[in-house]
Write a sequence for this structure.
């Protein structure tokens, strides 16, 4: 009799538990419906995102962010995942992580220049895998000696860059002397500089005179946001930045200059083993950008001029002015206007503006042809290197691709 009573009591208890769960489920469904019907919730979430990540603001220097074209809903998910805790970015601004003052100074300088209305948002880091195990693995693959900041459940790489004053950069470059000019393009000028501590750097001065000030600042923040998150030996390293008077990026100096200069501007032919090392370095750099970053980066302008060479001829991918974030579930971007370097642009990009990893892979193929043949991507007669090499490749006459000096070295 007692056993029967105990059994009945257990059944009643189970039924009560089921009712409680069912009630909770109905409450959750009702709350979700109310949130969807109430536009004020959506507005509040947008305000949270704005406060935590101002337009164009960098978060923390880890390997990744999202695309400016990411879905709005995924951004809100990241925002809400922080709950009531302060975001890492907010902790940084408050000085807890030791680098917030740099961003405050940067945005103070930028606000003096423009209204900051239309800058690209680099979303919050709440949805990223910031576990210590994950970040230790990523840091170990790249720069194992990089210092980190312990943020409880998260391990954040300690930033090595800083906000320079305009006066510091003037002194470093002898007032941007023409004698210090390393290179000049349509969007920027690069000067050799020496900081007060003796460190030799490359100072990139953003020009883009054809654009208005707001667009220039937006492009500057976009490039800064990407390069500050990159941490790999085969990519240019950020030393610092400045938005005082003009827009500047301070980068690691590369003693041998660009691959284009060494390949095409020197009387001495580059040894095959160095060419091979450069090819491997660029491939590993692209592998990092496309696969090992928290968010994929498409460079869009892989050229011999944008591959810098360190003292020991380690290839470093540089100039992220055209780079794009590619969200995880996206197959490609469609961009406009189409920008890049003629001779390196993939057909689907050149004709339709389609951008994905293969855009960079195509350009890397052109770079390989340059390394093997010693020819430019586009010769003086405007002939494309790809079109010149295609018949030889189709007939499998690979030997004819190599320049005479290379044929001697590799005995083909």
């Amino acid at each position: 009799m007692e056993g029967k009573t105990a059994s009945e009591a257990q059944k009643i208890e189970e039924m009560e538990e089921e009712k409680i769960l069912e009630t909770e489920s109905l409450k959750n469904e009702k709350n979700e419906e109310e949130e969807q019907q109430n536009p004020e919730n959506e507005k509040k979430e947008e305000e949270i995102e704005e406060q935590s990540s101002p337009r164009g603001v960098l978060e923390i220097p880890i390997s990744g962010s999202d695309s400016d074209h990411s879905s709005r809903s995924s951004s809100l998910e990241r925002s809400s995942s922080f709950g009531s805790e302060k975001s890492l970015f907010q902790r940084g601004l408050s000085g807890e992580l030791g680098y917030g003052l740099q961003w405050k100074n940067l945005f103070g300088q930028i606000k003096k220049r423009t209204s900051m209305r239309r800058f690209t948002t680099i979303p919050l880091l709440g949805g990223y895998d910031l576990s210590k195990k994950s970040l230790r693995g990523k840091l170990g693959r790249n720069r194992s000696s990089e210092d980190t900041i312990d943020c409880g459940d998260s391990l954040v790489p300690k930033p090595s860059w800083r906000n320079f004053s305009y006066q510091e950069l003037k002194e470093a470059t002898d007032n941007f002397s023409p004698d210090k000019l390393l290179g000049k393009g349509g969007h920027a000028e690069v000067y050799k500089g020496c900081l007060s501590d003796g460190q030799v750097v490359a100072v990139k001065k953003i020009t883009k005179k054809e654009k208005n000030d707001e667009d220039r600042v937006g492009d500057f923040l976009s490039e800064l946001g990407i390069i500050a998150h990159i941490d790999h030996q085969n990519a240019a390293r950020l030393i610092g930045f400045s938005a005082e008077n003009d827009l500047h990026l301070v980068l690691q100096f590369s003693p041998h200059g660009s691959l284009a200069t060494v390949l095409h501007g020197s009387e001495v032919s580059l040894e095959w083993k160095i060419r091979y090392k450069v090819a491997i370095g660029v491939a590993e750099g692209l592998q990092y950008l496309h696969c090992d970053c928290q968010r994929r980066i498409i460079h869009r302008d892989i050229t011999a001029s944008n591959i810098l060479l360190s003292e020991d001829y380690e290839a470093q991918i540089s100039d992220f002015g055209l780079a794009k974030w590619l969200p995880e579930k996206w197959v490609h971007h469609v961009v406009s206007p189409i920008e890049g370097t003629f001779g390196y642009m993939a057909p689907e990009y050149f004709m339709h503006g389609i951008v994905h990893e293969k855009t960079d892979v195509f350009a890397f193929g052109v770079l390989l042809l340059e390394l093997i043949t010693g020819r430019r991507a586009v010769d003086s007669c405007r002939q494309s290197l790809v079109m010149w090499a295609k018949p030889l490749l189709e007939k499998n006459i690979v030997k004819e691709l190599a320049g005479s000096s290379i044929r001697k070295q590799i005995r083909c």
Notes: The two ends are 96 Å apart (CA to CA).
